[in-house]
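Handover notes (outgoing to incoming on-call)

Open items:
1. Spermidine/putrescine-binding periplasmic protein (PotD): sequence verified, structure written out, both below. Nothing else pending on this one.
2. Nothing else urgent.
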Amino acid sequence: MKKVFLSILAILLVVVGLVAGKAVFDNSRKDEVTGEKVLNFYNWGDYIDPDLLTKFTKETGYKVNYQTFDSNEAMYTKIKQGGTNYDLTVPSDYMVDKMAQEGLLAPLDKSKITGMNNIDSRFLNQTFDPHNKYSVPYFWGTLGILYNKKKVSADQIDTWAKLWSPQFKKQIMLVDSARDILGMTLISQGKSVNDQNVADLAAAKGKLDTLMPNVKAIVADELKIYMAQGEASIGVTYSGEAAQAMSQNSDLAYLVPKDGSNEWFDNLVIPQNAKHKDAAYALINFLNKPENAKQNAEYVGYATANKGAYALLPADEKSDPAFYPSAATLDRLQVYQTFNQEWTQRYNDAFLEFKISRPS
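Spermidine/putrescine-binding periplasmic protein (PotD) structure tokens:
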């Protein structure tokens, strides 16, 4: 009986093995026919219209695996560590320079890119990427102050220094970013956001510490939600985040302080170890189309670098100086420069010490 059972079991195993082998063979044939229609996209949170990704997949057949990060430094660390092969990511200006210098980006094959004529020339050939060897402009904007008009007037906060007023005790939310928060503090002291002087940084850290009584929270993407819900009177954040909050709460407004701020540029780049570069070029070309760029700008809330998309925007959006600043405002803005590892760490450590000093 035992021999009969073993014989039957052996036959069953052979049959199962044949079936499994056929299944594997069929799947491999399917992959061979259809190809690898995949794009691994590593982007900031809520930084593309999901409907556009659906449209992209429908038009091209590429399935998008979408993952997010909350800071340039987090993205840089993940790309540098390797392990996960992203095909497209979105660093800001100074980080494009840093990643290019470290060999983390693939030079763009311009023959595979369409729609560059739709990009405003002001955003091309920037110092962080001469001749756009590695990057295609995506969005741009400013760091500024989002405020509740029922609780604060614009003239009360039209310079960074005014945030230190005792009247704003526990009323301010700060974006969780070392460069931005130390940068605004340096500007309030008449210094550059790219300052690399030990004494200046120490002085900025000392002044920033005195802002803590006014700080209600230090948060990331959720800042716009809290502000829309009326959780704080003032928020230091990015123009696009402010736009999204303002769309949810008509009592909110946004301004760029008179003493200047940061103008930033986010860009599409292909990591050096990307496995699906054709898919990356396909999405770049898709996003370069004015109608898609316009839809994306209206969803995200940031200023578009695509002049074709800008022309399609409603007049009230194009004329809003908070999001498309005047030439006079632009002249007061500074672009972040790349720091080496030592100075990146100095800024990060100073900001971490500031956050740790916050009472629990």
